[in-house]
Here is the input.
Amino acid sequence: MTATTPRTSGTTAASPLPRPIWRRHLIALAVLTVVLVPLPLVLPDAQQSVAVRVLVFAIMAIGWNVMSGFGGMFSFGHAAYFGLGAYVSVWLLVERGVSPWIGMLAGMVAAAAFALLIGFLSLRYRLKGAYFALATFAFAEMLRLIAVNSDLVNRAVGYNVPLRPGSSWAFIQFAPGSPNYFWIALALTSLALLVSILFLRSRTGRFTLAVRDDEQAAAAVGIPVMRTKLVSIALSAAITSVAGTFYVQYFFFVDPDVAFGSSVSIQAILPAVIGGVATIWGPVVGAAVLGPLNDITATLLRNPPAALDFLQGRAGLDVIVYAVLLILIVLLLPQGIYGAIRERVGRR
Amino acid sequence: MSLLRVEGIGKSFNGIKAVDDVSFVVEEGSILGIIGPNGAGKTTLFNLVAGAITPDTGSVQLDGADVTGFAPHRISRAGMARTFQLMKPFTSMSVLDNVAVAAMAAGASRREAPRLAADVVERLGLTRWRDARSDGLPTAGLKRLELARAVASRPRVLLLDEVLAGLVPTERVPVMELLETLRTRDGVTLVFVEHIMAAVMRLSDSVLVLDQGRVLTAGKPEEVTRDPRVIEAYLGEEPSGAGS
Here is the structure.
């Protein structure tokens, strides 16, 4: 792409304006997607489920990153949106026989609406920083408790996805280990990334960064602060809810803890933080590192090779090692893995 | 008709009147300087006019339309921009992007904003920092960036809160010249708070003196600086030596 003419042909200024970076991101996204398509055909079955989990984490984190990275509003309650995506779609499927694709859209709408409500309330009462994060956490917990105590959604029992006789694209159900699951997750992840790139490129996206950097200055140049924040909050929730819908279809099961538990919120945060907050690729890089890392520490320490035999049977050790590795990454790469690489390479 | 008309505006904090019954008018294309000792309420007055603080009393009219108590972004879109005394750059962005965002907020499209911004950046002498991240700029650069962003939002009235403070004298001159061209070339009406009397004398058509939240006096710069009350409250013995 060396010979392309700059789009800013109208200027007569001394040096040409810097070229927009968006095309690079879009090309990278297209290439990465195409390269990953054959992956399930070469991966062994066990690794394929790891790959699907990586993509689910990536979608959650891409969503979280829109609001908390680009928008600067730290959410500790993205379980609310993941859970709404899961519950709305599975309820429609089980109780009404509606395809999970439509359920996915309904979940996105529900999550965005709920996010607008709690976003408006939190911002209206000027919650910031830790207090804002606690409020988002409280709303997610509220949804969990409602689900646990509500007959409408089977209380603590939750839902099993009914098994169908054959495989079905319309109902996202295939034979166990089918590569179709991976392909659907890959398509959804690519779409989520595409949306986050286009959002960042849009006017509202530029305004979102300005508001994050300085609210007063943003308002002074004419940016509607509240509206801008609410757009990023709603978009963030809608993206994360997609992960919830897919998760239920993949694991055939959801209950209030799986959907709304605080560990779900952490799973949305971790890949973004490890990969690089407020970067386009950070959440994906983070998920791609964390998924296998978790799996490797687990398999290695639960079924150690002969040389590490003494580790056999020490319960919880894998979680400890995983935690230590996370701490090391955060300490050594405070801007995340992708953030650190970007800094090294020295481009934005 | 006056472009900006402020009538009887006032604001109390915890019972203390920070700004009390202040009125002034600014004609289109003119420059009003606001001076006064520290704590006189100059910045609060700006915040009231620009919508950052809602006034307890009084009204603000911009070109005949009542904008009292409007949110800051609505006042900005109505044509009144401001700068901040303590610079507030969008730190994650380049200088160009800072200005481009302001242009977009004023209605420029995503495509034309960078070009408009580049023009403003060049005009403000920020070209050498154009593609640098704004958090690395020295004070003089940040002051100009404040001004650039405000100019890019295409205001009719520009409220400037100490744009010269923190600049060494050689840096002040080009900024003053720029302010003059903003008026002559673009027809922008200026209201500025300043401690540097040389700038006030040079630029202002009229001067408003605040003391303890109230208008002490107002008038032509030469008259005001001769006023014994102004000398006592603010200027001290030597009128030309005041300010920092």
Observations:
- Chain A has 15 helices and two strands.
- The beta strands of chain A are 159-160, 253-254.
- Confidence is low (pLDDT under 50) at residues 1-13 of chain A.
- The interface with chain B takes residues 7-8, 10-11, 13-15, 17-18, 201-203, 206-207, 209-210, 212-214, 216-225, 278 of chain A (CB under 8 Å).
